[in-house]
Amino acid sequence: MEASPETKQPEKEVIGVFVCHCGTNIGGVVNCEKVAEIASQIPGVVVSKDLKYACSDLGQEEIRKAIKEKGLNRVVVASCSPRLHEYTFKNCVEGAGLNPYFMHMVNLREQCSWVHMKEPELATGKAANLVKMGIERSRLSTALSPREVTVEPSCLIIGGGIAGIQAALDIGDKGFKTYLVEKEPSIGGHMAQLDKTFPTGDCAICILAPKMVEVARNKNVEMLSYSEVVDIQGYVGNFTVKIRKKPRYVMEEKCVGCGVCAEKCPVKVPNEFDMGFGSRKAIYVPFPQAVPLKYTIDRENCLHFKTGKCQLCVKACVNEAIDHKQEPEEIELKVGTVIVATGFDVYTPTRKGVYRYWEYKNVITALELERLINAAGPTGGHLVRPSDGVEPQRIAFIQCVGSRNLKIANKYCSRVCCMYAMKNSQIIMEHSPDAEIAIYYNDIRAFGKGFEELYHRVREDYGIEFIRGRPAKLTKDPVTENITIRAEETLLAKITEREFDLVVLSVGLIPNPGTAPVQKMLSLPVSDDGFLAESHPKLRPVETAIEGVFICGCAQGPKDIPDSVAQAKAAASAASTLMIKGKHIVEPLYANVNEELCVGCGLCAELCPYHAIEIAEKDGQSKAVVTEALCHGCGTCAAGCPQHAINQLQFTDQQLMNELTAALAAKNSAGGE
Predict the structure, then answer these.
(1) CA separation for the pair 48, 25 (Å, rounded)
(2) What is the pLDDT of residues 109-124, one digit of tens each?
(3) Contact status, residue 254 vs residue 215, Cβ threshold 8 Å
(4) How many CB atoms lie within 10 A of CB 379?
(5) pLDDT tens digits, 190-215
(6) Which residues pair with 158 in a beta bridge?
(7) 3-class DSSP assignment, residue 452
(8) What single-letter DSSP state applies at residue 195?
(9) What is the mean pLDDT of residues 231-257?
(10) Under a CB-based contact definition with an 8 Å cutoff, are residues 344 and 512 in contact?
C-alpha cells in the first residue's frame, strides 16, 4: 500500500479550543473557565470556550458552529481520554467540513483532574499547561486521508471449544466461509469432559453434542480437526494462514467410526480425556460423541510404529481405512478475519505445595472429579477413591487453588470455582445422601444469574458445610489413607483438624499454552494475568489491537459457559460486520519513511512488534517499506532509527518538540516549579 498523501498546512492557524467540564469529573477539580480564558490569550486562538459536556449533541453543535462561523482550521478539545472519545470529535469536526486529523485531544480527566483531586489550584495550572502544549502541537497537524482495504469474505476460528463452535455456527449461518481449526482429534474442548453445568444442572454433553454435530453439517463451515495453525501473515481483510493437518494414520473419508479396530488393538494406555483414570487403545476416539467420529492412531504408543510388525487394526478394518504411511499435510488459506478461541487450561498444583496433590492419591483436582462422577466416565458415574476404589463418605473441597494467590502469580479470581464446587457437591449428595461434604473457602462468589439460588440450595437443602478459612496443612493416615486438613476457621476464630476420605482441589483456570504461538504470530497484546487482552473492556470487549482479529471465550479470560457463548456471538457479529462491508478503513497514523535518509539498515524491521516494516530494493538501494494496514502507530521504529529517517504521522519530531517547548516555557514562567 502506498503512503497517504498529506496536504499542505494552511498559511495561518485559526485555532478553536474547547474545554470540557465532563460534569464534575474535570470541572469538580479544574477551573475550566479559567483554563479557557488562558487559552484565549494564545496567538492563533480565535475561539476558546468551556463546555459542560463536549461530547453531548449540544457540545458538538457548539464546536461545529465555531468551525463554520470562525473558519477554524485547528480544533483542540480538552476533555477525557482520546481512547474514549477521539472518534466522536473526529466525526464532529468532519461533519463541519474540517479534515478530522486537524482535531487534537488533550486529556484533562485521566491525566489531570483524576490524579490531582485534592489539589484544585495546581490541577488548574497543569490543565492550562496541557492545553498550551496541545495548541502548539496542533499547529503542525496535517490533513491525512484514510485508506480502504478489501476484506476477504471468510473467517478463521482457532479453537474448537464451545466458544469456537458458537462463533463458527453464527458466521457460517450468515453465509460466510468459515474454517474451524482444532488441535485435538475432536472438537468440544473442556466442556465435553464435564458432567453437568451450573446452576441448572443440565447435562453438559447433551447441550454440547448437538452443536458439535450442527457445526460439522454446516455447509459454510470447514472443520479442520487434529490440525494446528503454524503461520499467519498479512493484515485486516487479507490474512494468509498456513495450517498443518496432523496425520491420523486413518483415512477420514473411509473411516465410519465402527470401533472394530480399537477392539482388536492390544495396546492400552491411560486416557487423557478421563484425566488418566480410564484407559484407551493406541487407536481411539477421545469420547463416544466425538466430532468427527474418526479414529486416530497414537503414534507414540502404537506397536506398528515401535516394532513395525503389528497390523491387527489393518486386518480388522473392512473399509481399509488404516494408513500408517500418512504424512502431515500443509494447507494454505486466505481469510479476511480471525477469531481466537483457544480456551484455557486448568492449574496443576505444584509438587511442593501444601496440598500434596502429587503425593496423596486421595487428593484430586476438580476436573478429575468431573470424570469420576460422569456417567460416561471411567467409573460409570460412581465416585470412588483413587487409592482403594471405595466410595468416600467424607469429602472436602478446597477453594482458590491456583487463583487469588500472590505466591504463584495468579492474582485473579477464576470465576467458576465456587460454583462448580457447589454443583459437584450437589451431584455427589444426589447419589449418596448420607455423604458429608465441607467446602473450605475464602469468599463465596456467586455473581451470575441463578448462582445465589444454587448456593442457598446446596447449603440449606443438601446440608453442605461451608468453612471459611484457607487450609494450612494436609496429612495422610498411613493405614487408611484418609486426609486430615488443618485449617484456621475464621468464623470460629480457632484452628481445627478434620479427617476426610477424599479431598478435591478447586483449581483455577490459566491461559492455554496453545495460545502463546498464536499470540506471537498475530502480535496480540496480553494482559497482566496472561490471557489475551481486548482493546477496551467495555467499549470493545472482543476486539484486539490488531484490526480484523477478535477474541472470545476463556482465551480472553476466565468465564463460564454462558459468558463464553455470549462473547463468541459478539466476536462472530464483529467479524461478520467487517465481511459484510467488504472493505475496511485504515487509520493513516502510520510510520512514514524518508527514503533520502533511509540507509536500509533493517533496525526498524527488527524493532517493529507488528511486523509492519520490511526492507526492499528500490532503484538498487535497500529501503524500509511500511505496510500501512499492519502499522499501529506505536512509534518504536521512529524512536529507534539511527538516521532519523522515520516519522510517525501526527506524532512527528517537530510536533513533539513544539509540545516540549510549550511545557518548558510554562515551567519557566512558573518559577521552575
Answers:
(1) 20
(2) 999 999 999 999 999 9
(3) no
(4) 17
(5) 999 999 999 999 999 999 999 999 99
(6) 181, 340
(7) helix
(8) S
(9) 97
(10) yes
- Structural domain boundaries, residue 265: 260-327
The strand pair at 344-346 and 509-511 is best described as antiparallel
Residue finishing a domain among 509, 536, 553: 509
For the chain, the helix, strand and coil percentages under 3-state DSSP, each to the nearest 5: 30, 25, 45
Residue 84 lies in a domain: yes
Same domain, 338 and 354: no
The answer to whether the beta carbons of residues 123 and 29 sit under 8 Å apart is yes
Has this prediction a pTM greater than 0.70? yes
298 and 185 assigned to the same domain: no
* Residues found in the chain: 673
Q: Do 109 and 27 share a domain, yes or no?
A: yes
54: exposed, middle or buried (Cβ count in 10 Å: 0-12, 13-18, 19+):
buried
CA-based nearest residue to 423, from 163, 194, 161: 194
Give the residue among 244, 228, 224, 226 at the shortest CA–CA distance from 185: 226
Question: Domain for residue 606, yes or no?
Answer: yes
| Contacts (Cβ under 8 Å, ≥6 apart) of 671 | none
Among 83-87, 104-108, 256-260, 392-396, name the one with the lowest average pLDDT.
Answer: 83-87
Q: Are residues 451 and 492 in the same domain?
A: yes
Unique residue bearing C-alpha cell 441463578 = 450
Assess if residue 160 is contained within a domain: yes
- On the 0-12 / 13-18 / 19+ scale of CB atoms within 10 A, 384 is middle
